[in-house]
Amino acid sequence: MSQIPPIRDFPIHAATLRRSPWLILIVVLLGSIAATLNQFKVPPVMPLLMEDFRQSAGQAGLLMSAFAVTGLFLAVPSGFILQRLGYRATGLTALVFLAAGAGAGAFSRGIGSLLLSRFVEGAGLSLMAVTAPDIIALWFAPEKRGRAIGIWSLWVPLGSATMFILAPLLAVHLGWRAVWQFGCCYTIVVGLLFYFLVKSHTGVPSGQDHSDFCKNLTIQSLSLALRNSNLWLISLLFCCFNFVVVAFITWGPTFLHSVRHASIIRASHIMSLTGILNMVAAPLSGWMLDKTGARKIVCALPLLVMAFLLPVNATASENLFLAMAVAIGFLGGFVPTGVFSSAVEIVGDERLAGMAMAVIQVGQNAGMLLGPLVFGWLVESLGWQVAFWALAPVGVLGAVSGLAADFSRQHPVVSCQS
C-alpha cells in the first residue's frame, strides 16, 4: 500500500478547466432539489391524502417516514456505492430512482402502492445526498467550500418552499396526482442536464476517472469515517434536527387546517415561509463558516433556540404560528450548512467526503423517519399540545451532542491498494 497525497495537489485535467465549478454546483443543486421536491410534496396535501385513502394521523405519517426508511438502510451502503461507481453514475442513478418513484406514485390506486413509490424515491434522495457533497469537495478548494456548501444547502428549503407554494395550487385545481406528475417531469429534465453537463473527469492523477481512482482506496481507509466518534455525534445532532424540523413541517399545515381552520392553500403558504427563511440563512451560514470557522456554534446554538420555540406552536394563533415558522425557518437554515461542511472537514480528506456524508445520512434519515411518525402518533393518542412539547427535549439532546463533538480537522493516513 502507498500513501496518496492530498487530492488538491493533483494537476487538473484539461477538460475540467473548461467547465466552471460554479456551473457544476448549479446543476448539482438542481438535481438535489429534485429529491426534496419529491420528499416534501406530501405535507401540503396531507389532508387530501388522509381523506382519499381514509388514513388516520398516525397512519398518514408513514407517507413521510417511508421516504426515510430506504435512506436509513442505504445510508452507509450509499457511501460505498459512490466510491465504487463514481459521482456521475451515482448521481444519475439517484435521479432515475426519484423519477421512477414519482411516476409510479402518480398512478397509485391504494396506500400500499403509494408507500412503495415513496421507498423508491427515498433511495434516490439517499444517493443524491452523499453524491453532491462529494462533488463539491472535489471541485472547490477548502477556503471556498463553505460558500459552496452554503449554496448547495438551499436544496432542502428551495425544494420544500416550492412544494408548499405549488402543491396546494396543483392539488386544488388538478388533484393531488398532478403534484406527483410535476415532481416526475422536473426530475427527468434535471436528469438530462446532469447527464450532459456533469462529467466524470476531475483533478485526480493522470486525468483518470474518479470512479477508478476511488475503487483503489482500501476498506481500512474508507472505514476511517465509520470509526470517527465526532462524526457520529454530529450525526446524532442532525438526527435530532431532522426529527423536530420534519415533524413540524409535515404536520404544521394539517394543524393549521384542522385546528386553526385555515384553508389548505393558506396553511401551506404559511409553512412555505420556513423554507424561504432557510434560503436566507443557508448562504449566510456558509459565509460565516468561511470567515470564522465556528462550526460548533453554527450547528448547535440554532437548534437549542429552536427547541424552546417549537412548543409555543401548540397554543399559537394563526399569526403567532406564522411568526414561529419564520423564526424556526431562519434558525434552521444554519444547521445543515454547518453539519455538511463539518463532515468533510472532520474526516480530513476530501476523498472520504462520501463516506462522511453516509454517516450524516444515518442521522438525517433516522430523524426524518421517526419525527413524522412519533409526532403523528402523539397527535392521535395525546393531542397536539403534547406532540409539540415533545419536540423540545429532542432538540436539546441534539444541541448537547453538537457541543460535545470536536469539530477540528483531522489528518488521517489514507492509502490505496498496491
Polypeptide structure, described:
This protein has 418 residues and is an all-alpha fold. It has a single domain (19-409), classed as Growth Hormone, Chain: A. Helix content is 78%, strand content 1%. It has helices at residues 14-17, 21-39, 46-53, 57-60, 62-85, 87-106, 111-139, 142-152, 155-174, 177-197, 210-215, 219-226, 229-258, 264-292, 295-309, 318-332, 334-347, 353-381, 384-389, 391-404, and strands spanning 2-3, 415-416. The protein has a two-stranded antiparallel sheet. Helix 13 (229-258) packs antiparallel against helix 20 and helix 15 (295-309) packs antiparallel against helix 17. It is globular. Residues 1-17 and 202-215 have low confidence and may be disordered.
Short description:
The chain is mostly helical. Helices cover 78% and strands 1% of the residues. The chain has a single domain (19-409), classed as Up-down Bundle (Growth Hormone, Chain: A).
CATH class: Mainly Alpha
Strand content: under 5%
The CATH architecture comes to: Up-down Bundle
What is the CA–CA distance across the termini? 5 Å
Order of helices and strands: EHHHHHHHHHHHHHHHHHHHHE
- Put simply, the count of helices is 20
Strand order of the largest sheet: 1-2
Q: What's the story with the biggest beta sheet?
A: 2 strands, antiparallel
CATH homology-level superfamily = MFS general substrate transporter like domains
Give the overall average pLDDT: 83
Domain unit count? 1
Structural class: mainly alpha
The tally of strands reads: 2
Query: How helical, in percent, are the residues?
Result: over 70%
The poorly predicted ranges are 1-17, 202-215
